[in-house]
Amino acid sequence: MNKTSYILLIGILLITLQSCKNNQNTGETILNDYLSGYWYGDFAPDNSMNLVFYFWQEDSVLTGSMFVVKGDSIEDHSTFKNIYIEGNSIKFSISSYDLLFTGEINQNDNLLNGNASSIKINLSKVEEKQIAAYQKIQSICNPIKFDKKIEVAELKDDLLFLKKQLEENHPQLYTFLDKDKFDNIFDNALNEIDKEMTTIEFMRIIKPLVTQVKCGHTEMIYSENFMNAIKENGKSMPLKVKIIENKAYVIENLSDNQDISAGDEILSVNSMSVNEIIKELKSYFSSDAFNESHKIYKINLNFSFAYNYIESPEDFNLQVKKSDNSTIQTSLKAKKNNLLFDEIYSNSTPEFPFKFKMVNDKIAFLKIYSFMYSDFDKFKAFIDSSFNQIKSNSITKLIIDLRGNFGGDPYYSSYLLSYVINKPFVYFSENAENYPELSTELKPNENVFTGDVKFLTDGACFSTTGHFISLIKYYKIGEIIGEEPGGSFSCNDNSKLFTLPNSHLTVNIARKTVQTDVEGMQIGYQIKPDYEVIPNIQDVLDEKDVQLEYAIKAFKQ
């Protein structure tokens, strides 16, 4: 969706909110020391708003966050990731907006100047007390006491703040949840808060409230600072687990317990059946309307971490079904998250998230990991080159793999669409903010592909990717193979982050509904693949891509 508001979903949160370590040579260490602190400049002078970059170091590693402030109020904030310094140049991603900042550090004049996409940013280094909101900024960014208790009155204030922001901002708040029920679930939550709670305990109460809005872009998330605290101090089940057709299978055993093997089916954890576990976990993950494939995809990114929404025990007593159908009881000790995250987390997007190759002399393969990338011209050049190769090799069969693609910028998806649609089309049904031309008639590319196309999808396919697939479905451009996409023709975005004042939990709230220009699809419509192909546990263990194999075989037939 919107380049300046697109938020990564919680499946991605588990890794992107971690700081990225830089190469620590002496010169860079000195520059890290210089950068640490506050950088301040204009953002929207007409609205009395300013921009703050705040850098600090954790274990000699530079990290940072961006804040939009108005007086002593924080209007928005986002973390930095992948900070890279070379000479006086600095580059990093502003994670909540998926924007790449590139800039130059001028130590003589204490200036930091650069660009984030087309946005010019000019900041000066200042003392903290020159920024009215500095105490609030520090409360968000400073190291967190993992088990700190929050007072009842503060928790209730946060809950009411959350309710107010949803009511004032979300465009379809009562589409799937009428106002009486909405008020009722918040009243019940207020009554449930009758003692001090840790941040995690409070999250267990409020996160399911937000998911009931049934909007994939509206969800509770931990701050980067708290995620770092969870990573360093929290513990999880030492297993890599994948849900397949409502069953939970072990993909990798990361414990010392030799009773458990890859391929084993988990039947229960601490006397709670897997069916109950899956049902409860789904209540913590947002998705659009009644879609469940998106929830399952995000849970599978890190099942063991997600289980902490239910409980965070020191011991896990498991009932496990072995490959010979025998059943055993066994137990595991929880393991620290900092030893598990990199091994368990199962989502990664290449730096250049696009790939083209020839499967054989008749079939071409185009992989689109994401529609979010910092250089649109480079993306267009890649797409142009790919379809030129298809044409020059007289290829008549094409597979476009959208699996794992959470969405991004509709300029990217509409450009790809122009290569596979053979008639003029309108992308959005009405004037979408920042994309007015996509609500006008667009023409196919002069090098449009007129052969047979098959699209591979899964539960990650959400937001802009869901929009793209809805147009594929509507115009009958090609067959959809794989799992149900996580998105459809309609979603809410133009999102904004709000920080709860006491717990410092963050809620991302969508503020505008955007729909593709299709007919016959109603709000809540779920796109079904033409051919549902779901890998079984043996396929996963063998790393067998049955969906791609199905598409290739279908071409041959």
Give me a quick take on this structure.
This protein has 557 residues and is an alpha+beta fold.
What does this protein look like?
The chain is α+β, with helices and mostly antiparallel strands and 557 residues long. The chain has 4 domains: 10-141, Lipocalin, CATH 2.40.128; 152-231; 234-344, Pdz3 Domain (Roll); 354-556, 2-enoyl-CoA Hydratase, Chain A, domain 1 (Alpha-Beta Complex), CATH 3.90.226. Helix content is 28%, strand content 29%. The chain is built from 16 helices and 29 strands. The strands form 7 sheets. Strands 1-2-3-4-5-6-7-8 form an 8-stranded antiparallel barrel. Strands 11, 12, 13, 14, 15 and 16 form a 6-stranded antiparallel β-sheet that branches. It is globular and about 70 Å long. Residues 1-26 have low confidence and may be disordered.
